[in-house]
Design brief:
The protein has 231 residues and is of the alpha/beta class. The protein has six helices and ten strands. The longest helix has 17 residues. It starts with a strand and ends with a helix.
């Protein structure tokens, strides 16, 4: 069984220019998941899939392999993760017993421990096809509402009088990694489904990065996370 880390990092990001190699606490942000994957010793290879020669160069400088360049048709704003994974599986000639872990390039808060828990979730549960990390919503969305034409409408009006402590806990994808069996990637099976396992992580280890404000928050969380570890 091969275990491959695949970091998809296309060029041409628009909201944050050069997002995947922008300096984050002194290093290109992609350097962090590369280092985490390499230092975890979980993988036979750590590979970056990109259409950018600049990103490829940075990836190699930090120890990742870039054995192929991603085609343009898989590098636009609308390409989902699965086709990128399928392309890598085909190019690398992976077999059905192999495992592919897609790690996002903007996941500097990802830890080796969380990656290992994801792998163990698949190894210990052969019927599971994917494993990914999730985080609880800060505020339960069952109490959420929309505002349209200056009018408020609850999304779940049946919970208008329900105490927050009585509501079921709701989670969302942490957007860091997806361990998956090669056949599940090939068949384009859904990740958010009963055949997947979740690793629950604290909010302090998660930050979606879409804006410069998000970027600043992620740097703050990173500094807090590693200062508390004495690193």
């Amino acid at each position: 069984m091969k275990k491959i880390a695949l970091i998809p990092a296309r060029g041409g990001s628009k909201r944050i220019p050069n997002k995947n190699i922008k300096s984050f606490c002194g290093k290109p942000i992609i350097a962090y998941p590369i280092s985490t994957a390499l230092e975890s010793a979980l993988f036979d290879e750590v590979i970056v899939s990109t259409d950018s020669m600049q990103i490829a160069q940075v990836a190699r400088e930090y120890g990742a392999k870039v054995p192929f360049m991603r085609p343009k048709e898989l590098s636009d704003d609308f390409t989902p993760t699965a086709p990128v994974a399928q392309h890598a599986i085909d190019v690398l000639n992976l077999h059905k017993e192999d495992l592919l872990c897609v790690i996002y390039p903007t996941a500097p808060l990802l830890t080796q421990e969380t990656l290992a828990l994801g792998l163990n979730a698949l190894i210990e549960n052969p019927h599971k096809l994917f494993a990914f990390c999730a985080v609880a919503y800060d505020y339960n969305p069952y109490r959420s509402f929309c505002i349209a034409n200056d009018e408020i409408e609850m999304l779940f009006p049946q919970h208008y009088l329900t105490r927050s402590q009585d509501l079921a806990q709701v989670y969302h994808d942490a957007g860091q990694f997806y361990w998956g069996r090669v056949e599940a990637w090939r068949e384009n099976l859904p990740i958010f489904a009963p055949h997947s396992s979740t690793i629950i992580v604290p909010n302090s280890q998660v930050q979606d990065i879409d804006t410069l404000e998000d970027w600043t928050l992620a740097e703050m969380k990173y500094k807090l996370q590693y200062s508390t570890r004495g690193l």
